[in-house]
Every structure is written in structure tokens, then in C-alpha cells.
């Protein structure tokens, strides 16, 4: 299979930068909620804690996606990019276009 590895590397690096930028933008939402009795009512504190919980969950998802991107970049470096990690067959180029960090062909993904 002849893939444009340089283009996939660029796509992966660009997505990784987007994730890092999203992390920077959500730092305030992930900060501990200050429980000042005078300035914030009980419902406002609950809202702030919900925002914090959602921001932390999103940060974990971004961390997981960054790890998948890093693994895909290593596969490019090792000459293993584009092959299913389960069966070893080629991953369809259209599937890689959609998500270059994908690790399995469509058949193996259906089995999971």
C-alpha cells in the first residue's frame, strides 16, 4: 500500500496541536472550585463543580487521543503505519483519512 506518510504525519501533528490548544483553553475550567460562602451561592458552586467535572473528562479524552496520535507517529517512524494491529492487513486509506490514528481495519473494528 502506498500512503503519503508525510501528509498523514502532518495531519496527526496538526490534530495534536489542536488538542494541546484545547487543553490550554480549558485550564480555568479544570481548576479546583473555590468554596467561598459569601460570594457564590450553593447552586453556583454545584454548577462550577459540574463544569469542572466535564472539563476534566474532556481533558482525559484529549489525553487518550494524544496517546493514540503519538502511537500512530511511532508506527510511521517504524514503517508499521497503515496496517491493522490485530490481523496485519492494510487499513483502508479512506479509514485512515478519517482518523489517521486508527489501529484496526474495518473488519477487526466490527469484531470488537
UniProtKB/TrEMBL annotation:
Keywords: Metal-binding, Zinc, Zinc-finger
GO molecular function: zinc ion binding
Pfam families: zf-dskA_traR
Presence of keyword Lipid metabolism: no
Domain Zinc finger DksA/TraR C4-type: 79-111
Zinc-finger ranges (dksA C4-type): 84-108
PROSITE patterns named in the record: ZF_DKSA_2
Positions of transmembrane segments: none
Presence of keyword Cell division: no
Domain of life: Bacteria
The protein, known as: DnaK suppressor protein
